[in-house]
Fold:
Amino acid sequence: MNATVAANESKATSATIDRIELTQPDDWHLHLRDGEHLPAVLPFTVRQFARAIVMPNLRPPVTTTAMAVAYRERILAALPAGSRFDPLMTLYLTDRTTAAEIEAAVASGVVKAVKYYPAGATTNSDSGVTHVDRTRPALEAMERLGLPLLVHGEVTDQSVDLFDRELAFIERTLAPLVRDMPGLRVVMEHITTRDAVAFVESCGPNVAATLTPHHLLMNRNAIFVGGIRPHYYCLPVLKREVHRQALMDAAVSGNPKFFLGTDSAPHARHTKEADCGCAGCFNAHAALELYAEAFDRADALHRFEAFASFHGPDYYRLPRNTGKVVLVRERWDAPAEYPYGGDTLVPLRAGEPLQWRMLPAA
Ligand code: DOR
Ligand code: ZN
Structure:
């Protein structure tokens, strides 16, 4: 059977669908890196997405509007010839971010959000926030101006079990913050637990969340299949199956609080295959295909378009895209590796089959 349906039509059994047409999506959480690494990964994202929220955890981090504007120029300069892509920039929140900096960020029109990394939580987070109270002036300006706060929701307290750090962050930091600043717009990034789903659902419309393809498709066993698998190590780390199921339920629920954010996070192969390997999964080479697979497995392709293409722009108060992309049910193997500046990087599913393929733009 060769049924063709638009992804937003009423539910058809996913197994009978082998072509999906959807409004062009955006990636609401992406790491593009810089220097020689930027042109190595940018084309993968540009092929699929019209816009992306670009993470600021460079070295040094993007802490000012001037730095965000300059980084955006470097991204635009690295675009493949003839391509169109709108990088939506973020500032890296520190204990010293001022209200004036937030005002400048909003006035620039270039900065669309501010990223909260608890200091030491993940890659290049050393300059992050040591205590939420220190960020009050910045947060108050953001609440006043409607600039979203994007949260890496994990405590750094080493006495808390690694697998419980998201819940501890919700209890200790996020729930009190949302209670005290109800006007603050907050996106809990790359959520990994049923606790985070329940928390986001319990909040008002100011609080939303992004979901990655790897957290929708895999549980923590993937890190240990037949040996240790560094390319499945990211932060927050993959969790138990019961959590993956809760994330999947949220993704296919139709609730506009949940939307696409790949957290594609490239690292050179040798920095992941190391004594102390870096956290991050590179998925930009097949992001939409991986999400389609997750929705297909859940028999919910009819919910894919809203998750991928509508909920994000609606939350960010930006227009939805007008272009279309098409995915077909077609097996292909992800390459074993890609060039990454002078290094190589190993993509998600390296050397293994994918079930969907995005067609090149007509
Ligand atoms: O796994 C991760 N990688 N989690 C993050 O929060 C950061 C990211 C990166 O920049 O590599
Ligand atoms: Zn990230």
